[in-house]
What we know:
By secondary structure, the protein is of the alpha/beta class. Helix content is 50%, strand content 17%. An eight-stranded mixed β-sheet has the order 7-5-6-4-1-2-3-8, with helices on both faces.
Amino acid sequence: xxxxxxxxxxxEGENVQPFxxxxxxxxxxxxxxxxxxxxxxxxxxxxxxxxxxxxxxQKCPVKVISFSRNFGKEAGIYAGMKEARGEYICLIDADLQxxxxxxxxxxxxxxxxxxxxxxxxxxxxxxxxxxxxxxxKSFYTLINRLSNVTLQPDASDFRTFRRxxxxxxxxxxxxxxxxxxxxxxxxxxxxxxxxTACERNAGSTKWNFGKLFNYAIDGIIGFSTSPLRIASHxxxxxxxxxxxxxxxxxxxxxxxxxxxxxxxxxIVLTLLLGGIQLLCIGIIGEYVGRTFExxxxxxxxxxxEILDYEEKTDV
Length: 315
């Protein structure tokens, strides 16, 4: 098997069939074998029903992994990589915003340029608002400063890589996964190519600002301990300022006296110190919480059903 296309799906019932049709059209006459690995991430619509119909028809080799509940896209990516058989592995969304034709170009680069192990696509133009664009740019700037890995701005999970890269990623069994950081951490030489995201074939995006924010926190916490150092610096700085203020108050009392108690100063300092303490406790809590969940050693996902095309019976 030359290529495995991994397509995580969550409520993509209207998109899975058009996606398969687009893949077949894009790889018609490519001269090598390929497969599609669909991962149903606990969808609540007709996604699994439509995937079973696609699997039964077998217009091209199709494997379907069905989760017992919604575990998230990162778990879907991990499950797809475990089940993929291809020499090359491709991560692609099923909503057709990422076109299968670009995957052929990625495969060609890997074939013709053996010095590269990964071909990753980044969006050259984004249709999102200025506010969201500002926060995304700020995130990449922040995480690249805090972590010991470098993330390519605007790079997505849309990428094709060799099986050796897949094997390295599967060795990382962390529960809270951040694929962009994981790919950067394992290394390997990467070729970045631009692409323009198309309109969704149907439905609406599952990513809102809140989910993106939580995903960004996972990335920062998962690939940097700098927030813990920042909390320590806050504590040292605050303690130093408190000592200096104490010296100032003593000198003021001895030489000039204090006519009016500093009520406003006390309130402001109390709120400031309390806020800093809560911030530091929150930062520590994020790391402790993730450590607690990781030590449970729960599986990244639970597959309720796996439909392999080799197990298909004639109908």
